[in-house]
Every structure is written in C-alpha cells, then in structure tokens.
Amino acid sequence: MFYYISFLRPPPTQAALSGEPILITPQIANDLRTEYYTDVQDIFYSWSLHSPTPSSVITKPVKLTSWRASTMYKEIPVPPPRNVRNGEYWRLILSSGTSRKDQVLSLNDENLGRQPFPVLSDPIFFSARSNKVAVKQERIQRSYALTATNRDHPVIFDIIEQTSFDLDKKIWDSGIGLSSWLIQLHSGMVANTALVSKVKDVLFASKCNVLELGAGTGIVAIVIGILQGLLDSPVPSGKIITTDLPSALPLLQSNINSSQSLYQPGNVPKGVVLDWGEPDISTQVASFVDGIDVIVMADVTYNNASFPALVGTLSRLLMFSTSVTPAKTPLIILGYKERDVAERALWEMAEKIGIHFEEVARIPGAEGTAVEVWVGTVLVNTQ
C-alpha cells in the first residue's frame, strides 16, 4: 500500500496580492482516501511559477507542518510566494522532504512508497483584484520520473487527478506498482524467468500492439509509450490503445497529450471508449490489423460484480486477435492489490476461457497489502 499527500481542503483558484496566507488542509491517506497515515510526517511546501512565462522557478522547500491523523482536519496557513506579481500563476507543492527529488515520484526507486507521495496544486492566479467568492480547486497533479539505462537523465511526466471521488479519475496503487515494474523490466532489473523474458521481448519489440482495459488516468499506457520510445531500435510501429468508460476519457486523453513530446510518432497512446458490457468491440480493435500482442490491466478487480463483463471482454479480445493471427495469442499483464479475498475469483473465471495467470513480482510499498504483478498466457484455442 502507498500513501499520498493530497488536499482535504484544496487551495483556491485565485488569491489576492495582500500577502495573506492561503488556507489549506493537507492529508496523507491511501489511494481511495479511506485509510490515513498513522505516523507523524513532516510536510514541506514550496511554490513553482507556472506562468505567464515558462519558468523553472521553484522556491526552496520550507516545513509547513507535522501531519498527524489526530489533527487531520486542521487548517494550515501557507505564506504566498515572496515577491509574487499581479497576473502570475503559481503551483503549491507539498512533499515529505526538502530536496527537488522529493517533489517528484521516482518510479525507479527500490524503496518506492516508503515516503508519502508528493502533490502539486493546480495553478493559483494571484490578482490585485479581490475575489469575494473563493472557488476551491478540483484537480491535483503529481510529477513522475523514470530512468532508463540508455539515457543519462530521467524522463519526467505529469498526471492530473480530480479531487472528486470519481474512481476513474484518481491514481490507484496498482497503476503505480505496475508502472514501476514495467520500468524495471525495461531496465533489466527484475527476476529473469522465462515468462518475464517473454514479456520483455514482446512488449519492447519494435512492433507491439498494446490494449489497456480500465485505464483511469492513463499512467500505465503513458509509461509504456515512453518506454517504447526509449528503445535503441527503429521507431516503434505498434499501437497503444488505452480504454475506459466515457466519463474517464477527457482526463485520460488530456494526460496522454501532456506527455506528447515524450513519445515516438509511432507509439502515441490513444484513449478509446470500451464498455465491458457491450458485446461489440469491433470499432475499438479495428486498428489492430496484426492482432493484439499485450493486454494490460491495473486495479480492475475492485468490483466483483463486473467480473463476468470483464472476462467476456477478454474472451472477445482473444477471439479477435487469434482470428487475425492464429499463431499468436496475447499476453495479459495484470497489476493487482487485494482488497477482498473474493476478488481472487477472477483467476478461476479466467482459467475457464483459457487464461492462466502466474505471479511474477510484488511491490511492497509503505505497509500492508503489496501490489502484485501477474502475467496471463492463453492455454487453449479461443477460436
């Protein structure tokens, strides 16, 4: 399990130039915000200039508070940026440390999750005009870094989340855990079993068609797109289709677009609507003229009632892919964190359509339940 710094009371969208502090209520909790961090944790704040001109100005982190669950509802005043000017936009950064590295979530970190993850607010507009009605922000951002063995500097990308309780607009533990494992796989830092080697060979081939189910904010597909773009091989020619319900698509596509410069032209992820309850998937898979090489899923098990629809979708995807390329069946990569033992029924249901899952890794996080990585192979003819 991972812990996330976020805002129980977010900052406003606009602040005055009066020098008055901005009131926020930070919180440290799990991905669903249902379990709170039980230790004492120092939280540091800094300001990042966002506009009107592009800037790398980030103020030195200063201790804001020592967060405790017993005072989790306490409002904390944050001094505004020094010498802030009228018309400037600044982001508020909260982190658990005093360095720039502490403000970015490193997915390569062997101790991933041992410290609560940092957060950035949406830009706050500072104006000489008073804003009588304070409008609270509805989005947050987290910055992620990944390092590849064939690159000197880390790649940094951003993911926006909503502060609402919409489950498809938040980062979930399994998305982070699976993304971290994929980065380690790309760098050769994972246990090298025959199955793991097969996953690496297929996923990071010069041509690999990937379809993701239940994408949410899109972090897994974005990481795959970035990693494929880092290959020392010809420009990738496969496709990455990342899918979810219509409500998730605007944020999903926005996150994909924000990392546009990090992909190669041939492997830009594309957000597509795919409802597991719909029997016709022909539109979503039409571009996979060579079949599907890899199906990716992270945290798709939180609703047991959706399992028949999910398994039905998997079955249809397998039948489509083998109808196009009979000699090739997709690999299925699953990031999973157990919340209820009844979720394990998915494995039995998958076996009935010829998918056998094997666990290949565990990412422990801070405490509690680890993120598990499973790889599914197709054992029977699905035609």
What is this entry, summarized?
The model has no long low-confidence stretch (mean pLDDT 92). The chain contains seven helices and 19 strands.
Give the class from helix and strand content and strand pairing. alpha/beta
Calculate the terminal CA-CA distance, rounded to whole Å.
Answer: 39 Å
- The H-and-E topology, N to C, reads as EEEEEEEEEEEEHHEHEHEHEHEHEE
* Total strand segments: 19
What is the mean pLDDT? 92
Question: How many H/I helices?
Answer: 7
The amount of beta strand, in percent, is 25-35%
**Oligomer description:** single chain
Helix content: 10-25%
Shape: globular
Mind summarizing the main beta sheet?
9 strands, mixed
Q: Which residues form runs of ≥5 with pLDDT under 50?
A: none
Using only C-alpha atoms, the radius of gyration works out to 22 Å
What does this structure look like?
By secondary structure, the protein is an alpha/beta fold. The chain contains seven helices and 19 strands. It has helices at about 175-185, 195-205, 220-230, 250-260, 280-285, 305-325, 345-350; strands at about 5-10, 15, 20-30, 40-50, 60-65, 75-80, 90-95, 105, 120, 125, 140-145, 155-160, 210-215, 240-245, 270-275, 295-300, 330-335, 355-365, 370-380. Strands 2, 4, 5, 7, 8, 9, 10, 11 and 12 form a nine-stranded mixed sheet that branches.
